[in-house]
Amino acid sequence: EVQLVESGGGLVQPGGSLRLSCAASGFTFSSYEMNWVRQAPGKGLEWVSYISSSGSTIYYADSVKGRFTISRDNAKNSLYLQMNSLRAEDTAVYYCARSLIAAATNWFDPWGQGTLVTVSS
Amino acid sequence: SYVLTQPPSVSVAPGKTARITCGGNNIGSKSVHWYQQKPGQAPVLVIYYDSDRPSGIPERFSGSNSGNTATLTISRVEAGDEADYYCQVWDSSSDHPGVFGTGTKVTVL
Fold it and tell me: Which of A27, B29, B34, B61 has the smallest number of CB atoms closer than 10 Å to its CB?
């Protein structure tokens, strides 16, 4: 069974840092691109970041560029999101999601169960 | 950056058809994907590549895309279809390519 399990969320003060992890199983992790998507309480989905299978290509949403860093360890079947200089507006459930690709498009399946990040003093 | 607009809510009686629109500039030239999200749960892919269904998704779910509007259609709506639905595209011409629609809450009357 293809599975993604996030961890590392919690309560952090504004300006603080947090590192999220996503453990993948049930598929050849090193062959797939991956993403982070977040959802603020009561709000819609917001794509956050993408990383290619080798890690050589990375994209970020403007809202997190310069503060967040996506990375992966294919030997450990794991995806990461290092979040620095956190703001109240970063409060959200963070999901990792596998990319499926065809003809220059990209969709997300499956998704993990999410991990909650709360930025508050 | 590319913007996708959805109606905030759609209401439908059981057994009827729900249509959820996703508007974007020349969206017909892009591939559109759709996700269902029930309260407290992670999103689930229900349509990809405009109109393809993943395994396990009922045939009642279908999609189309043309011009400036993509549409997710749910036929013979059931109570279990009540959820939020999001469209998504990948804007490969952008350096922030992931784009989600604003989301639509489907209420089964």
Answer: B29
Interface of A with B (CB under 8 A): 35, 37, 44-48, 50, 59-62, 65, 95, 100, 102-114
Model confidence over B57-104: pLDDT tens digits?
Answer: 999 999 999 999 999 999 999 999 999 999 999 998 899 999 999 999
* Average pLDDT value for chain A: 97
Residues of A in contact with B92 (CB under 8 A): 104-106
Q: Which site among B55, B65, B84, B88 would you substitute to test the A interface, given the most A Cβ atoms closer than 10 Å to its Cβ?
A: B88
Side-chain-side CA neighbours of residue B96 (13 Å) = 15
Query: Does B54 sit within 8 Å of A106, measured CB to CB?
Result: no
Q: Which residues pair with A20 in a beta bridge?
A: A81
Distance CA B37, CA A76 (A): 29
Residues A95 and B87: their CA atoms lie apart, in Å, by: 17
Q: Indicate the residue type of B48.
A: Y
Cα B95 from chain centroid? 24
Long-range contact pairs involving B21-25 (C-beta distance under 8 Å, separation at least 24): B21/B69, B21/B70, B21/B71, B22/B69, B22/B70, B22/B71, B22/B72, B22/B87, B22/B101, B23/B68, B23/B69, B23/B70, B24/B68, B24/B70, B24/B89, B25/B68
Among candidates B91, B32, B35, B19, which has minimal Cα distance to B66? B32
